[in-house]
Please model this.
Amino acid sequence: MSLAGQYLLLQLLIVLAVLVAVVAISLAQSAAAFERTEGRRALSAAEALGNNPTVRTLLPSAEPRSGSALPAVAESVRTVSGSAQVALARLDRTVVASSDPGLLGRPLELGGSRVMEGRAWTGVVDAAATPILSAHVPVLDDSGKMIGIASISRNYPSTWERLGDAVPNLLTYLGVASVLGVAGSLLLARRVKRQTLGMEPSEITGLVENREAMLHGLKEGVVALDLHGRMTVANDSARALLGLPADCVGKDLAGLPVEPALKEVLTGEQPDQDQMVLVGERLVVLNRVPIRSKGRVIGSVATLRDRTELSSLERELGATRTATDTLRAQAHEFANQLHVISGLIQIGEYDSVVQFVNGATLDRTRLNDEVTGRIQDPALAALLIAKSSLAAERGVPLQLDSDSALSPVADELSRDLTTVVGNLVDNALDAVTGAAEASVRVLVQDSPEEVVVTVRDTGPGIDGAAAEEIFKQGFSTKQPGPAGARGFGLALSRVVCRRSGGELEVANDGGAVFTARFKRPRLKRTPPTPTPPPGKVVQP
Model:
């Protein structure tokens, strides 16, 4: 059924329900009006009958079916008042005169009447097959003593009779209500269809189901906000990336556990595409566009992509490029050395050739032995050797402090060390390249609880006001890179340090001094295997 048909059917059902309620109210009102109007008339006739002198004189001694005076007076009153039934009863309720011969000699049915208390009463009596409206009046003698009862009754109209009286009005009400209901339902259906772009309920349901399936099936995160900063859409990927609760939709972004930098990106203007944001330990690429409806902005939608793995690959590629540059520098150095050796051979200086080769070999062996002898983690040792060659090509001496020492570490801590030390050394080399008396010194200190790495340079140092700003994502003193690619090294390094329970700090002492602390993971102790008593076998 179409939307208009559903509204029409619903409206007709409402009209029918209202009509039934009106009929019930009309029947109740007609019954109340009949009891009120006809009850007064019956009471007036009963009072006239009870005050008749003949009745007051003959009633105390009257007997059923004896004499005609009382029946004549009672019938006369019934005829004049237009009542259906009349009865006169003695004080013992015995009927002595009545328009219904079947009541003579029988007790008068009083129902809920209080006439025996000497009070007039009107109400419905269910003595007959159908209810009747009766008026009971006490008959008093000249001294005011009650000597009998005068009763006037009127037939109570049936439900069908009362309904028949109300049918003309009800048909009018039904016609007017039907016309208004049909017109209203058509107008409402037209308005709703215009607001729903002409789609029927089944189409709207299918559209919503497809939308939900599409949103929650996307690997990319999708977040939508209205103009007041309330979250209107958040799919499963967005909740996982941002750590949002399951009931985040409909809540204000300011009240959700979202980092301030991310809130600023989600609510501010985005001048460039693919803006990178650090969310916890993940690097997320964000694109935000406004949502427009009928020419006006009603909110914004942002797509989120997890670029952590890609960033790791980029860092690995950067390390490979660094190694390539180092090998190229070494190849250039070796080529120069080979040229020297070739020239010495050509001029016959064979002793000088041996001396030159031994010196070159000794320098390279001394560097390798110096690093590997103090740093027993192969990854960090290889990184420092590669950075030493790169620093030598830039004309900056990179020195490993003689007090440095590092025992073997776990794989996870080794990866964290290479990530942080690589970033700190690169920043130090950038800070001192081209400066007079430039140098970079690395100190690695080891203990059972933590590993402390200090990278010191002779550059201009860090401005005191920017000591904490440099650890915020997006902050960089270098030239801005593509799509905001700068300003993540130190922020990521601090996150890596804090993840292990450590910290990354900076100070100034003749240049910038960065101190990175890494907590060593606690080793799980295996309880010793109990030695079995002699003669017993322990199952593995």
